[in-house]
Fold this sequence. Notes:
The complex is a heterodimer. Chain A is mostly beta strands. Chain A folds into two domains: 2-163, Rossmann fold; 172-430, Neuraminidase, CATH 2.120.10.30. Helix content of chain A is 12%, strand content 39%. Chain A contains four helices and 30 strands. In chain A, strand 19 (304-309) and strand 20 (316-321) form a beta hairpin. In chain A, helix 2 (51-68) packs across helix 4. The longest helix of chain A has 18 residues, at 51-68. The two termini of chain A are 37 Å apart. Mean pLDDT of chain A is 91; it is low at 1-22. Chain B is α+β, with helices and mostly antiparallel strands. In chain B, helix 1 packs antiparallel against helix 3 (35-83). Chain B has two domains: 2-74; 86-209, CATH 3.30.1330.60. The chains are: A mainly beta, B alpha+beta. Chain A binds chain B through residues 182-183, 201-204, 206-207, 222-227, 246-248, 250-251, 264, 266, 269-271, 292-295, 308, 310, 314-315, 336, 338-339, 352, 354, 359, 382-383, 426-427, and chain B through 90-94, 110, 147-151, 153-155, 157-158, 161, 165, 178-182, 185-186.
Amino acid sequence: MLKKLVLIVITLFLTFTSSAEARVYLDINAPTLIQIPIVLSKWKNVGKTSATLSEKVYEILVNDLTLSGFFRVIDYQHLPLDLQRKEGIPEVLFLKEWMPAGGEILLAGEAFLDSEGLNLRLKFYLFDLVEQKQMVAKEYKEPLQSLRAMVHRISDEVLLQLTGERGVHNTKIAYVSLQSGNKEILTTDFDGANIKQITNNQSINLSPAWSPDGKKIAFTSYLKRNPDLYLTDREGKNPIRFSYYPGLNASPSWSPDGKQIALMMGIEGKSDIFLIDANGGNPRKLTKGHGNEASPKWSPDGKQIAFISDRSGSPQVYVMATDGSDVRRLTYEGSYNTNPSWSPKGDRIAFCGRVGGRFNIFTIGIDGSGLQRLTSNSGDNESPFWSPDGRYIAFSSTRLGGSKIYIMHTHGLNQRPLTQSKGGESSPAWSPRFE
Amino acid sequence: MIKKSFSILILILCIGLIMTGCPKKTVIKEEPSTKKSEEVAREAARIEAERAKEAKEAKEKELARIKEEEAKKAQEKKEFEQSLVARKTPGIEGEVFETKLLKDIHFDFDKYDILQGDAEILKGNAALLVKFPNVKIQIEGHCDERGTVEYNLALGERRANSVRNYMISLGISGNRISIISYGKERPMDPAHNEDAWAKNRRAHSVIVSK
């Protein structure tokens, strides 16, 4: 297996000789997931860096690369004794020493905390152990409190080097949690760390949606005894009510330019898809007819809106132009298809479909072809939401009892829970990258 | 008939007046009239008295009826007020009143049309609104837990509006009925089975103003 991988890598090297960008170690569009074996040597402490600090860096790094799903991480503690002790960045000349580690790639680094203990400098090198050469050397310097974000940037860089596309380690996921007894909006980092409460109002809070710049979150709340739209910054501060027409103001989705919001509105006695300006004004109805219309999602190119309608007798996924014209039905299989989410490239839509009384996650091409089922035999799986790099889908699942947020690769592989909570989680929304 | 008799009487009196040429009123009255006109007058007076008596009786009867009705109304009002249970929900502004006099109706899965038997229940609810014209209600549309949050919000909205429209068709003014969809967010029975789901697919009415 290892030999085969090495062969693939060598072949790739031969194919794409000099250009670093063209060298793709891992085809992320491959139908199966091949994991690159990557060795993480022990980090070196420089300056005032304590052992715990560099261990923390190391721990986050291992976790990030493991969660990405693209790596088989070889921890230094599992290396031959002489390699276990080697800290910091090796000379290219001595890379041969690392061959017994069993990896194709070596990630090595050192952490330097300045004398005041305020600023942290993380220096890291990526080596190709097969070719015996250095791939990248970088250094990030930021205040100590940005440690997590800095390490996530390293992970993103590793992904960029090895897959041709940056990672999403510096993203957050907003979701709804019932843990306090009522539905509140929370956010967490991609790795499930750093959980923050965005609402704390004891009301019913639903459907969080990130603004395209990642600075704001829109959501529905029943604070004023009507499902109204609210807007808050990403710390949960300064919430304002900005769409409060009688009836539903729900399921917001921002246009990519951030100027408009598509939503469900009940002004006309049933739920229709409307557009409003980002300040809540100027509502325009897009859907016609007698169906119940739900869950609008703006396409990444800003030209279309996917939504749910039961105009055919059961809820199905439809797509229309942003002026309400050119409506076409996308899903025909199954009698209950909801929760559309666009891939960032705009070529596929993930949705939740009912099969045999259970809900599962599917994706389908925007032309209605290539239906793929991503979950099965694992409780109810709902609310898929694509990551900004298009490589993952967050969703909720009741596979272990309570509903929890999970993350999987878009091919359905590597499904893992996002947080350590016992349940009560739903409606994940992935943020854009924060950089 | 009485009117006609009066006219005749006046006509006769006028003729008498012209014939005697006497301008004094008293004289007219004292002037012995013909036997016939006396009889007419007596008859008129009797009719008048009878009419007054009848009117008085009718008035008394009406008063009694009104009194009875008022008592009944007061009793109903008392019963209505006693039936009200104030409900405050944390995180949701304001206070509403629950009453067992406003009954819930239920729906089939993924449906919002009012079932045959439930129309009678809604007529009962409408009758209550007719009795208490100051009352304003809010109809809550609820769903079972199956399906997505958003689609269930749409379904709840539609269920509440089905009920509102039916109440309006029964003559209740639309501005007395607001709606709210709770989707699947406020189940009556939190269990995960058919029985619970059937209970949870409902339209529930609360009083927002007495």
